[in-house]
Design goal:
Blueprint lengths: L13 H5 L11 H24 L9 E3 L4 H6 L13 E6 L1 H19 L5 E7 L2 E7 L8 E5 L1
Parallel strand pairs: 3-5
Antiparallel strand pairs: 1-2, 2-4, 3-4
């Protein structure tokens, strides 16, 4: 049984990063949880910087999708080599293109200031819905950026 309330960082719990509407079990192993924790370090920095600059003081970062088991990934049409499979990726909900651009700029600044690379930072769009696919691997990060619609 997975502990959905397990803290990955100050503001993020395991349940947020493993939720799925598929009804399929979605339980990460220890290594995948470690990857999620690393990712949450970045999300905490994003949350703090967003709130310092633009937020209402305590705006949350909303995760649409985080870790995906192979079965969940297949059910949602994820890429076969997706970083979601290893717990290295999240899709961050954005309220419009402006927030997506600001989140992306903050994540780029975090990377530059901390001299740490990410693997993927992709602004995605479907209709009027925007999100950022953001991935950080333990090593071999490619600093890949893109905009997809």
């Amino acid at each position: 049984m997975m502990n959905n309330k397990m803290k990955l960082s100050e503001h993020f719990e395991l349940g947020e990063l493993t939720k799925t509407k598929t009804g399929i079990e979605n339980v990460p192993n220890e290594e995948q949880v470690e990857n999620l924790m690393r990712l949450c370090g970045w999300l905490e920095k994003l949350r703090k910087r967003w709130n310092d600059l633009y937020g209402e003081g305590d705006d949350p970062i909303i995760i649409n999708s985080g870790f995906r088991s192979p079965e969940v990934n297949k059910a949602v049409g994820g890429a076969t080599l997706s970083n979601h499979l290893t717990g290295c990726a999240v899709d961050i909900r954005c309220i419009g293109i402006e927030q997506a651009l600001r989140y992306a700029a903050i994540l780029l600044d975090i990377s530059d200031l901390n001299k740490e690379d990410f693997d993927e930072l992709i602004i995605e769009r479907k209709g009027y819905t925007y999100w950022i696919h953001f991935a950080v691997r333990p090593f071999g990060n490619r600093r890949r950026t893109n905009y997809k619609r």
